[in-house]
Design a protein that fits this description.
By secondary structure, the protein is of the alpha+beta class. 53% of the residues lie in helices and 8% in strands.
């Protein structure tokens, strides 16, 4: 066998000679390659330019191997392109499915609170993951059937999902901070941080001082001392009566026969402490609530709110959300809470109207929440005002003089120091009532008062109830009710504020949507989709994608 592949090219215009040459070549077991150029005639298939002649052609084995290799590479390249095209189409389908799914975010939640999430609450109040799966599949399947790829969907599903309440509300916290960071300038953020730290630090110290001032032991010591002084005075009077009767007298007389005077009655001085004690035992809200305002009567059941129930949790999305830990994160979140929730000065229009007060106090009604905040403000103002009294020599001299007059009204005088401590507490309390009443009416009160900013004199202390509106005044350079609320919020820890805010968002959404089945822990903020595909009847491909609002 020759090492060449023999071949012939039929040529000439005589058909018979060409036929005989072909038969002879086939008889010798040569491989015949027929080559008919385009200009070969239809009758004899011969090339006119080669008339009367015949030529043989050959190809080497090495050339054949090279051609085989080239054809193999070409075939492999074509298969690689088909594989990459199938893979790209699958990933594109998963992406389209997730993007289309999360384009169905709740518009009410976005309009009211600037939060992106899908409400996946089912009709029975449970988390409906089937809805998410069906929507994901419905948008993904048409993409898999495009082009000429043969993509067979073996199985698909959600590889994970995250909720707004996951990680103690960290997902919600991150969205709120990101929103405020995009809408607030850096300089404004720094000012917020500085103001909140300054106010909260002062309020914390004032609250601690107020707790010491309003220590029940102070008034208890006063009551005990007064009762002891009254008992001993009565015993002394009884002894003097007996002595006077033995001496033939008919009344209360001193050693020289005169009646024993009462210094309090002679000077016309009234002891304000018993009156203020009775005022302290009254409800705080009637004292501080201004007559120009209307009190909300809204009430909710807090037992089913997110902070009081076991929340649903996401799965398979650990590590997707980076933890929000910037130095401005907490001030930004607090600004978000203040701007989105209602309070006494700017009531909400759905559900509880005093929502910031709820975040701080967690009571069932607006009235209870407002009363709790008013009590905290009263405690803060008491501490600041008591410090202002003790730091002012003129006020302390007035208090000392009055305590000495009160003590002198007993035959067996109690310790003036006990009366002085109770008197300072009562004076600070009365001044604080006017302060809180001013705040609730929309006025401003300085954190630390000067002598000129003081409202209630010691002489007018017994007339507190008649001077609730006449003696109080607002200071333009002071701190407003909203500022005090922000200071109180800044004193609370992050988790406490997050859960209280989620409570208010959920109940607001329920009222505004008219659907009690809404649950904030059923709001999906991210998910992952996974599919298994048989591509072109030969490749098993798995694709997974994750999407989250950020």
């Amino acid at each position: 066998m020759s090492t060449f592949i023999q071949g012939i090219r039929l040529c000439g215009h005589r058909h018979q000679s060409a036929k005989r040459y072909l038969e002879a070549a086939q008889a010798k077991s040569h491989c015949v390659i027929r080559h008919y150029p385009q200009n070969c005639c239809d009758r004899c298939h011969t090339l006119s330019r080669y008339r009367g002649t015949c030529h043989e052609g050959s190809v080497t084995v090495y050339m054949a191997l090279i051609l085989c290799l080239m054809f193999s590479l070409l075939s492999a390249g074509i298969q690689s392109v088909r594989y990459a095209a199938a893979r790209t189409q699958i990933l594109h389908g998963v992406d389209i499915g997730l993007y289309s799914l999360f384009a169905q975010y709740d518009r009410t939640l976005l309009d009211r609170f600037d939060l992106f999430a899908i409400d996946a609450s089912g009709a029975d109040g449970s988390l409906d993951l089937g809805f998410l799966y069906d929507e994901f599949n419905s948008y993904m399947r048409p993409i898999l059937h495009q082009n000429h790829q043969r993509l067979l969907l073996l199985q698909s599903g959600l590889s994970g999902y995250s909720l707004l309440t996951d990680d103690n509300g960290a997902v919600f916290y991150r969205q709120a901070v990101q929103y405020m960071r995009q809408t607030a300038a850096a300089q404004f953020i720094a000012q917020i941080q500085e103001r909140n730290e300054r106010v909260s630090s002062s309020l914390r110290e004032a609250q601690e001082a107020g707790a010491r001032v309003e220590d029940p032991g102070t008034m208890a010591n006063y009551s005990e001392a007064m009762e002891d002084a009254a008992r001993r005075s009565e015993e002394e009077l009884e002894r003097q009566r007996e002595e006077a009767a033995a001496a033939g007298g008919d009344g209360m007389f001193t050693g020289d026969g005169g009646a024993i005077p009462d210094p309090s009655e002679d000077s016309g001085t009234v002891n304000p402490i018993p009156l203020i004690q009775r005022v302290m035992n009254m409800g705080i809200l009637p004292l501080v609530f201004p007559p120009t305002k209307a009190l909300s009567g809204e009430y909710i059941s807090t037992g089913s709110l997110p902070s009081r129930r076991i929340l649903a949790g996401g799965a398979g999305m650990e590590g997707v959300y980076p933890r929000e830990s910037g130095i401005f994160s907490d001030p930004l979140f607090q600004e978000y809470v203040v701007s989105k929730l209602g309070h006494f000065m700017r009531p909400a229009d759905q559900g509880l109207q005093y929502q910031l007060e709820y975040v701080l106090c967690r009571k069932d009604s607006d009235q209870e929440n407002l009363e709790s905040v008013a009590r905290r403000l009263l405690l803060i103002r008491e501490g600041v005002n008591a410090a202002a009294i003790t730091a002012d020599p003129m006020k302390m001299n007035q208090a000392i003089s009055l305590s000495c007059v009160i003590a002198a009204g007993f035959h067996c005088s109690p310790a003036p120091a006990v009366i002085l401590a109770a008197l300072v507490v009562c004076w600070a309390f009365a001044e604080s009532v006017l302060d809180v009443r001013t705040l609730l009416e929309g006025g401003k009160v300085p954190l630390i008062k000067t002598a000129d900013q003081w409202q209630l004199s010691l002489e007018n202390l017994p007339d507190l109830l008649s001077r609730l509106d006449s003696d109080r005044r607002s200071d333009p350079g002071g701190i407003s009710y909203t500022d005090y609320l922000q200071g109180l919020l800044f004193m609370e820890n992050r988790h406490f504020k997050i859960m209280g805010t989620l409570d208010m968002i959920e109940q607001t959404m329920q009222k505004s949507m008219g659907w009690e089945g809404f649950r904030i822990d059923h709001c999906v903020a991210g998910a992952g989709g996974s599919v298994d595909i048989l591509a072109n009847e030969r490749w098993y491909l798995t694709a997974e994608r994750t999407f989250c609002y950020d």
